[in-house]
Amino acid sequence: MGMGMSSSSRRGRGKRTRRAAMSEINVTPLVDVMLVLLIIFMVTVTLPAVGVPVELPESRAAAVEEKPDQITVSIDRAGTIYIEDAAVPAGGLPAALAALDRGGEPPLIVLRGDRALDYGRVMAVMGELGRAGFTSISLVTDGSVTPP
Description:
Layout: H1 2-14, H2 28-46, E1 58-59, E2 71-75, E3 81-83, E4 86-87, H3 93-98, E5 109-113, H4 119-131, E6 137-139, E7 142-143
Parallel strand pairs: 1-7, 2-5, 5-6
Antiparallel strand pairs: 2-3, 3-4
């Protein structure tokens, strides 16, 4: 009996068993990478372009695509003007606009104005932009589904 057991154990060890090739693709790493990319995309898209808190008016206008060389001008509820994130001192808008490096063609100006602002304040800023040579101005609004 002892011989039978040892011979059977030798047979199992002595034979080389051939494993079948894997015919499945492991998709777990692919799914992990795609979920991470999705999260990164969602976080970067939902971040506001400029850190100035402005409550935008609503409009059904089509969205304007962003350009890399655009300059964002914001006017908050108190009437303070910001170029990108930097506040412009009172009466200093013409000097701040003159200091912007244009490098040839004037860049697109994206104007964000708070909904509580007086229309005259927004038009005064637009007038200064035009006077400084910035003729391409886009007004930013929040989307709306109901017509006025």
